[in-house]
Specification:
The complex is a heterodimer.
Chain A lengths: L1 H11 L2 E6 L5 H8 L13 E3 L7 E5 L4 H13 L5 E5 H6 L21 E3 L6 H14 L1
Parallel strand pairs in A: 1-2, 1-3, 3-4, 4-5
Chain B lengths: L2 E5 L11 E7 L2 E8 L7 H5 L4 H9 L6 H16 L5 H29 L3 H22 L8 E2 L2 E2 L5 H27 L1 H7 L7 H6 L4 H6 L6 H4 L20 H24 L17 E9 L2 E9 L5 E7 L1 H13 L7 H7 L13 E2 L6 E2 L3 H13 L11
Antiparallel strand pairs in B: 1-2, 2-3, 4-5, 6-7, 7-8, 9-10
Helix pairs in contact in B: 2-3, 4-5, 4-11, 4-13, 5-6, 6-11
């Protein structure tokens, strides 16, 4: 019974944290665009939260720079369980055009576990939405 | 009693990783310091290992909001080195996308400013209308954010009559909405009350600290590369450089809204006077040895690319000076004597594009040839002492 309730509440209103791990801003504005009237994820109960301690889903963009590596791990640890990570954009998947640069780890999965990958450079807001919905469908 | 407040790199008020360190006394900020480098990816080094045409793809990804600015700035310079000239139609289309990008960037900023001022319905309004210009950009280039329309010697996609009509239709909506934003931005008492007098930067300070773009223009300096150093068709089209003399965040908002109208004028001019002919010429693979400095007025201010070629199919050096980097020094001046609650607003008012500005620099002493890496705080102290001695004669590098 309690399990059912937690599962229901988790699916109904996932709170997301937007984490920029050295992205070029393109995926970030698409993530924000997904919150605005055209796409409007808030109607599904998805809320953008400012702190990792409130979040259920981390939406991360960017290829992970060396400077940010430790901080990303810390933010991941601060997020309460159960937590899910969505890697948005080609950079977060594999490093994209920055792959091989001296300051780039090349993909989010080098640092923290990732549940869903959303491809695209940058990923469209509808693709990001689709990624989050697919994640919720898995629960 | 003085306190230090660290803000960032991951912070609710910041959209991108940057670290601000505020020294506060009570509510008042006494001093501020910036720490950069969280977003440094090594783009300049990467550019040296890619060919001229591959570098367009890379420079576009320096920044996602002003992606066309960096790509155009690079292509302008590279075309000079490759000794080719884009055909008229190609040039018109290239700068048509530039102006559309300016519109999308300014609408985005207006929304962010509204959000930081606690006016979230304004944020939702501007971002809804921004989708109109995003649709136009998607129609022209096939992508919403990284347009990939530039190529060496022109552009990659042509425009037909039906698309022209659609752009003009979209402009009608945008114009009507921008009128409304001007009314709110400059007239709505609560909004004006929040923005007026915040983040003051006098004309003299703006001049001394080498600000660029809307920050300089809001302090009454009519500085615009499109006017000062006209390239392409900018000497034929009639437009004004929008300025304001309130020197605060309100002025920066008004300047950006006014610039929207100037951009609409330029877009209309391009659509009505689009010449016929080819859109691109074939570019050679190798460039002549040489160096070039390319200037471009990005939505945030003057963007400078320095490109050096050694005669191969790759650039030997690419140096990017993004407009946000030029405005950082002024931001600290704006933050000083402000309140803690104003930090996000003041910081957002320069329209910071942190990923643009993540460059490292190595300083070489001109007298001894000694190389060293310097912290931003030391650099600022150095600049301040230079300024203090600037009225003396025979200084090595007078300000």
């Amino acid at each position: 019974m309690l399990k059912k309730l937690t599962r229901w509440s988790r699916i109904k209103s996932p709170w997301i944290l937007h984490l920029n791990s050295g992205a070029c801003n393109a995926c970030d504005i698409e993530v924000v665009a997904a919150l605005t009237p055209r796409f409007d994820v808030e109607r599904f109960g998805v809320l953008l939260k400012a702190t990792p301690r409130h979040a259920d889903v981390i939406i991360a963009t960017g290829p992970v720079t060396r400077q940010l590596k430790d901080r990303i791990i810390r933010i991941y640890e601060q997020t309460p369980d159960p937590k899910f990570v969505v890697a948005v954009g080609a950079c977060a998947m594999s490093g994209c055009v920055y792959r091989g640069a001296y300051n780039v780890m090349g993909g989010l999965d080098q640092v923290i576990p990732v549940d869903v990958y959303v491809p695209g450079c940058p990923a469209r807001p509808d693709a990001i939405l689709d990624g989050v919905v697919k994640l919720l469908g898995k629960l | 009693m003085k306190f230090q407040i660290p803000i960032g790199p991951q912070h609710p008020a910041l959209k991108e990783p940057i670290s601000l360190r505020m020294t506060v006394e009570g509510e008042v900020i006494k001093d501020a310091d910036l720490r950069l480098g969280y977003n440094h990816r090594g783009v300049e080094k990467l550019a040296e290992s890619k060919s001229w045409i591959q570098n367009i793809y890379l420079t576009e990804r320096i920044c996602g909001i002003c992606s066309h600015s960096h790509a155009t700035c690079f292509v302008q310079g590279a075309e000079k080195l490759l000794e080719i000239e884009a055909p008229r139609r190609g040039v018109y289309l290239r700068y048509l996308v530039s102006e559309l990008e300016r519109v999308h960037s300014h609408l985005l900023w207006l929304g962010v400013a509204g959000h930081e001022a606690g006016f979230d319905s304004f944020f939702m309004y501007t971002w809804r209308d921004r989708e109109v210009v995003m649709d136009i950009l998607e129609m022209i280039s096939g992508n919403r954010v990284h347009y990939a329309i530039n190529t060496l010697g022109g552009v990659r996609r042509d425009l037909d009559e039906a698309q022209k009509a659609k752009i003009l239709d979209g402009l009608k909506i945008l114009k009507a909405r921008s009128e409304y934003y001007l009314k709110i931005g400059a007239g709505e008492p609560t909004f004006v009350g929040r923005l007026a007098g915040v983040g003051m930067l006098s004309r003299q300070q703006a001049m001394d600290l080498c600000t660029v773009g809307p920050v300089a223009r809001a302090s009454g300096i009519a500085r615009d590369v499109r006017k000062d150093d006209p390239h392409a068709f900018y000497d034929e089209v009639e437009f004004d450089v929008a300025t304001a003399d309130t020197c605060d965040v309100l002025g920066r908002a008004v300047v950006r809204i006014k610039e929207l109208f100037e951009s609409y004028k330029i877009i209309e001019f391009v659509i009505r006077n689009l010449p016929d002919g080819p859109i691109a010429v074939k570019a050679p693979r190798r460039a002549k040895p040489g160096e070039v400095v390319s200037r471009y007025e990005a939505p945030r201010g003057e963007n400078i690319h320095y490109i050096k070629s050694n005669g191969s199919d790759k650039p030997e050096r690419l140096k990017v000076r993004a407009p946000t980097l030029a405005n950082y020094a002024a931001t600290i001046e704006m933050l000083r004597h402000g309140f803690i609650a104003d930090i996000p607003l003041i910081f957002a008012a320069i329209d910071p594009c942190i990923c643009c500005a993540e460059r490292t620099a190595e300083l070489v002493d001109a007298r001894t040839g000694e190389e060293r890496i310097v912290r931003f705080a030391d650099l600022r102290r150095l600049a301040a002492s230079r300024q203090a001695h600037s009225n003396k004669r025979n200084v090595a590098w007078p300000l």
